[in-house]
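Many introductory courses stop at the sequence. We go one step further.
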Amino acid sequence: MPAIRFYCRLSFFMLFFACLLLPVNLLADEKPNITIKTATLTQQDSTFLLDSLIVYNLSDEAIEALHNGVTLTFNIDLSITEPRKWLWNKHHTNLTLPYQLRYHTLAKIYQVSDTTNNIRLNFSSLSAALHSLGTLTDIPIYTLTNSPHINANASLNAYLNIEALPLPMRPLAYITPGWYLRSNTFQWPLAQ
């Protein structure tokens, strides 16, 4: 009788812990991708400022390479186009914002670098570094001119730059689906 009680309690606790770990397993199996949740361009004086929220879910191959010392470069492409009825669309600006993610093994920190503005931020966890990488706040876009009567559309695209990987890794990265990390194009009308 005591043995039956012991096994009942044991099976109950195993079932309880399995139910607790189930949501963690479901979150861990997210498909590797990049998703742009929001993006806006606001005008402040004569400068436009970009705000965006991008969610990065890295593949196992990318995480393994990161932990082995490979720097991952993510590009964010901003394009402003004006649709026309009779001619091709007019491109006002095409801008690429490169960001780098690296892991320092000895210090056990993740570093996010904004190579355009030469800003580096350090984080103790990968999730915090990816959150910082995906949160763009008040990024000045100087190439966009202040035109009062423009009817333009903005589009944003984020992707892992395979060309920035070390040369021996590139051929395998081009044919391995885990390295193809790219967002869908996020478009919105530019209100002025």
